[in-house]
Every structure is written in C-alpha cells, then in structure tokens.
Specification:
By secondary structure, the chain is an alpha+beta fold. The protein is built from 10 helices and 11 strands. Helix 1 (68-80) runs parallel beside helix 2 and helix 6 runs antiparallel to helix 7 (207-213).
Length: 283
C-alpha cells in the first residue's frame, strides 16, 4: 500500500527553557505554529520483510538509520512486531538544518502514514509519546498545529491557529550547531518569556498582544556567534513586519505579517541578504 503525507515546517512563536533536567537536556516551554512550507513524504509497505529504505532528493540528508524518518518506521515496526518492509521517499522543500523541524516533520509524517496503513489505531497523543525518542520536535509535528510544548517536548497543548497570517522565512547560508548553542545556556542570565501571557493572548485572538509576548531566549546566543541574524531581523522590522525573530536555534529568521502585500515587500527586500526566502501562510 502507498500513502502520501504532507510534512509542514514549524516556527517557534516562543522558545524558552526554564531549567535543565538531570539528564542534561533542557526543559522546554515553547509555542509553535506550522507553516505552508512542507516536505512531501510517500510511504509504501511491501512484502520484503525487515527492510526499511529511505530515499530523498537532498544530498545533505542520510538515507540510513540516522534519518529521522527511518527511525520513525523502525519504532513502529519494532513496537508492534510488523513484518512488512517500508520504503520512504521524501521530496524536500524545507531547508535542512534550519531550525524549522524538517526532519522531525518527516518522521511525524511516517508515523501518521504507518499508523493508518497498519491500522494500529494509535491516537495523536500516543504517537507523540512514542516519537519523543526520535527528537524533541517530533511530538509537536505529529499534531502540526499551533500548540504549547513543554517538558522534554512530549507535552503538547493544542491552541487556536493564527487566522490568515503570512510568514516570510529567511534561511541564511550558515550552519548552527544546536548542541553547541544548548551548552552555552546560562540559566542565571536568561531573560525568560511570559509564555502564559502569550498563550492567553492566542486563546483570546488578541494578535497585537500576541506579538508583544513572542520571543526566543536562544536568539542572543546564536546572534552573538552570527551577527547577520540581528541584521536580518532589523531589516524585517524596518520593512514592516508585525513581529520578527529566530526559529529554534537558528539560523532561520521569520517575519509575521497581517497582509500579503507587506509580506511581499519583506520578501523582496530580503532577496539581497538571503538566497533562501519563502513567503507562505501560517496553517
């Protein structure tokens, strides 16, 4: 059987970490939203048992067990003792290593597809719990809608979506090491966000208030190493963005706009700064 899944990118409307767990990993308090920039994942099951094959059109991605989509298939096969083999084909549109959750969204797409194909009957929260061992962003990507994400990433609280908002995403040609950024966190110096207030503003549909409480506590760390991040943000604000900030640990910056004409102006204004600029809508 063959099934097709859309795997949308995510952006962080808020990214905060109040503490570090004893295992060394950060405790997250984030608000995420999905955008209409997506990879397209095709999952085919077949009678060649115990095989998982991954094919992508990107030379930057591994096709073996290092690929998160491969890991997603392996988890379900192992957990439910499925003998069928799986072939996964991924058409990439989300930039790689961009802080947009592309690999995590691909993995979530595989989980959704195989849950249907193999009639496992797992609910979203059950898929999310299973997926945490793959990557901390995968549980959110299983849902793929505006949500607050806490803990290691396993607790997902669905929120109302942004109505008809545009996003301009700018991916610079720099490479950010997430482990390196996380190691630099000094919890005594972090300026924490008012995430509760952000969530309440989203629930009330008070979008100007929402922009007031957005933020990413890791942005100063990444910007200290890559000053161009700050320049891109300043350019977005100058061109009329309602809000602008970094997604994940970077290097991608995004701007939110309430109308397409302003988003188009930002997109055109960034072309001289970034090779990869996308104008899309929030989902």
């Amino acid at each position: 059987m063959i099934i097709h899944e859309k795997a949308p990118a995510k952006i962080n409307l808020a990214l905060d970490t109040p503490m570090r767990y004893l295992d060394g990993l950060p405790k997250w308090d984030m608000v995420m939203a999905s955008v209409d920039l997506a990879d397209y994942v095709t999952v085919e099951t077949h009678d060649r048992p115990q095989t998982i094959k991954v094919y992508t059109d990107s030379c930057y991605l591994p096709n073996d067990q290092r690929n998160l989509a491969f890991q997603a298939a392996h988890i379900l096969k192992s957990r439910f003792h499925i003998a069928e083999g799986v072939t996964i084909k991924i058409r990439k549109h989300i930039p790689v290593a961009a802080g947009l959750g592309g690999g995590s969204s691909d993995a979530a797409a595989v989980l959704r597809a195989l849950n249907n194909v193999w009639r496992l009957g797992l609910r979203q929260n059950e898929l999310a719990q299973l997926s945490l061992s793959i990557d901390s962003d995968v549980p959110y990507c299983v849902y793929g809608t505006t949500a607050r994400v806490t803990g290691h990433g396993e607790r997902v609280e669905v929120l109302p979506s942004f109505p008809h908002y545009w996003a301009v995403i700018a991916k610079q040609k720099i490479s950010v090491s997430t482990p390196s950024i996380l190691r630099q966190i000094n919890y005594e110096e972090l300026h924490h966000l008012q995430t509760d207030a952000l969530v309440e503003a989203i629930r009330q549909g008070d979008w100007p208030e929402t922009f007031h409480y957005m933020g990413n506590v890791l942005e100063p760390l990444t910007a200290a190493e890559f000053p161009q991040i700050k320049r891109i943000k300043q350019q977005m604000i100058k061109l009329g963005a309602d809000a602008a900030q970094m997604s994940g640990t970077g290097p991608t910056m995004f701007a939110l706009c309430h109308n397409e004409s302003r988003a188009r102006r930002i997109e055109n204004g960034l072309r001289g700064f970034c090779r990869e600029v996308y104008r899309i809508m929030l989902l």
